[in-house]
Amino acid sequence: MKKFAIASHEKMALGIQSTLELFVGKDLDITYMAAYVEGLPDIDAQIATFFDNIHEEDQVVIFTDMFGGSVNQKITLAAKDRTNVFIVAGFNLPVMIEIIYGAEIYTDKLLRDLLENGRQAMQLVETDFSKVSGESTENGMNESKPDTPTETNVLRSAPVQDVGGATIKIPTTLRVDERLIHGQIAMVWSRELHLQGILVANDEAADNETQQMALKMAVPAGIPMLVRSLEDAATILKDPRAQHRRLLVLVRTVADALALAERVPNMSYINVGNVGKSVEGEKEILTQFVMLTPNELASLKKLVAIYPETALQNLPSDKKEMAQSFVS
């Protein structure tokens, strides 16, 4: 079983809990330890309790706030001779998510590689988009003068074949998320879906170069991304090559998802993830993350008629709530 712990001086570990749960959910076995905080057990007692619940078959990663600090030292001593316990000193949110989702079985080499990936998430953010507009991004795309949609990097790959030589169809996921590309997409869904491309289908963003540059900032390295109008996105998705790429298509509204669903027959999963918080007026609350206006509810009903397996799900670790139950 995978177990994790986050340990810090004072309340840093406790403070990161709600943020981390926003990305990884609440079902993982994560212990939060705060040292030298009045009203909490002594840090030695917290560490002892944690290690008492570690079994030989467990794989354990402990994040400490500072290499060589007292918390790090105490945990290092407690972990002595335990080959199934790994300690990471000096953590940040991308590093933790990278490691939590990085593997089922940890090794020293794998963790070093994952740490390097996490370090690359620390970047100086360029706020003058004119300096980067039109330049090739880290994932090898240049969209200042885009080619025709069917010739983009999102579709440039050889079809995947099984051992018998037959071409395999790979599912496309369509997600409704009013934030489009953000941390959960970059750090969680991209790993869950093993993405080979992201397609943002939004008329407004397709005409706004500044918004496109902002969206690109969140795209994981190595994953091509396109921002296109709904009409152009439908053209891309109907290209036969799209059936052999693991694509995530992002739209802002259920109505936009419906517009694509009416035109595109080969999507495997439609996910209503996070929508409605930025909309004013009367809304029906379906889940903590989905609040729909009457018009959006009507669109959801039509969407379910086309794709009955449409589900409400914010994180991969969350239970799927079938959309059918909200519109029947």
TrEMBL record:
Domain PTS EIIA type-4 span(s) in chain numbering: 1-122
Where, per UniProt, does this protein localize?
Cytoplasm
* PROSITE patterns for the chain: PTS_EIIA_TYPE_4 (PS51096), PTS_EIIB_TYPE_4 (PS51101)
The UniProt keywords, alphabetically, are:
Cytoplasm, Kinase, Phosphoprotein, Phosphotransferase system, Sugar transport, Transferase, Transport
Ranges for domain PTS EIIB type-4: 167-328
Principal localisation: cytoplasm
Q: Does the keyword Ribosomal protein apply?
A: no
| Positions of region (Disordered) | 133-153
Q: What is this protein called?
A: PTS mannose/fructose/sorbose transporter subunit IIAB
Q: Which organism is it from?
A: Enterococcus camelliae
